[in-house]
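Sample pair:
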Amino acid sequence: MSTAHTTRILLALTTACALFPGAAHATYSADSDTGIERLDFIENQRRAERANRLTPEQEKLLADVASDAGASASSRGGGSALSDRI
């Protein structure tokens, strides 16, 4: 490549770079609250999971009901309690 050709390429690139930073800067939009909003979302999600989690007493009750339903179904000759009702 000749020096004149290289100079033209560099001038064209410099001109292009001088035009684009303003547009590129305008497309970037972030604020300092973005990180805080993400942390709030995670905290709220974990809080909802804790609120909807079963207590040990509720888990024991569900296990007792399931075992009672299984015992009554087996005493009637098999099948599930739901299929016996249908």
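The radius of gyration is 34 Å.
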